[in-house]
Amino acid sequence: MITYKDAGVDKEEGYKAVEKIKDAVKKTHNENVLSGLGSFGAFYALSDYKNPVLVSGTDGVGTKLEIAFTTKKYDTIGQDCFAMCANDILCHGAKPLFFLDYLACGKLDSEVSKIIVGGVAEACYKAECALVGGETAEMPGFYKEGDYDIAGFCVGAVERDEVITGEEISEGDTIIAVKSSGVHSNGFSLVRKIVTNYYENFNGKEIYKELLKPTKIYVKPVLEVLKKVKVTGLAHITGGGLVENIPRIIPDGLCADIEKSNIQILEIFKYLQSKGVPENEMWGTFNMGVGFVIIAKDKYKSEIIEILKQNKEEAYVIGKIIKGEEKICLR
């Protein structure tokens, strides 16, 4: 006779994992959440919107997870998962309403899953977004014991007449950078080729502590900007850096003219480049210190930077919109 546990799946450990995260998840709920953990589906009531448009996004953490597994530091990757999704839908002016996560592993450890999903819940709480459900999949023989993968799905809403697409960007608009916390969650396949010892020294500490800094959540500060100022474009700077992400919102016939010398490059990127990565590869892979970009009329730049400062975000001007066939000129 053979049981599911004999096959490598421990249902009891799964039940423990759910119990350990219940309180953290419940803390993220508000009056719009009409169901609790355990239902087949989650219910969320839309309120306070006249003509809402739903905006959704999904993403994962990528190979940054390997650094977390190796160092057994799981407390930041949950925020990475949430931030990657929430910051994306924020680019259209959407406020994240609810989030679901998917956690897969070779052998479930309820304490590890508690830390990872607890990080997701804490990130949701910071952004006033409800964590309404998720899935934990134990897949022995598919994932190695000790390996985890995490992905998420975020849904937000914005009034139809307030959707931001970049179509209103025009010549003369100012490009404002909002500082990143570090590498965030992109480019780690390259990082792991460069840095093979996660305990090597970087500015007086083990480098993994720098690499595992979580992706910033820009939701609250950017929504504060949108309440007070009309912006024409927003971009989350993820894989491909400024080079690939800014052109996604630039209309035909216009160009984002940015000088590299304007950008406050973080020390971690200087260190990675010193390991032998060509400059063009750095700019085409990493955020280089810019986690989010706001484009608006030049007259609003000081107000936007001040609002962000009041919300503990460092921001500064890096360029302007000009006429041109290339959608970005990074010089």
From TrEMBL:
The name this protein goes by in its record: Phosphoribosylformylglycinamidine cyclo-ligase
Pfam families named in the record: AIRS, AIRS_C
Residue span, PurM-like C-terminal domain: 171-326
GO MF assignments: ATP binding; phosphoribosylamine-glycine ligase activity; phosphoribosylformylglycinamidine cyclo-ligase activity
Positions of the PurM-like N-terminal domain: 53-158
Enzyme nomenclature, EC number: 6.3.3.1
Gene3D superfamilies: PurM-like C-terminal domain, PurM-like, N-terminal domain
Record's GO cellular component terms: cytosol
UniProt entry tagged with the keyword tRNA processing: no
Organism: Hypnocyclicus thermotrophus
Catalytic activities: 2-formamido-N(1)-(5-O-phospho-beta-D-ribosyl)acetamidine + ATP = 5-amino-1-(5-phospho-beta-D-ribosyl)imidazole + ADP + phosphate + H(+)
Pathway: Purine metabolism; IMP biosynthesis via de novo pathway; 5-amino-1-(5-phospho-D-ribosyl)imidazole from N(2)-formyl-N(1)-(5-phospho-D-ribosyl)glycinamide: step 2/2
Family the entry assigns: Belongs to the AIR synthase family.
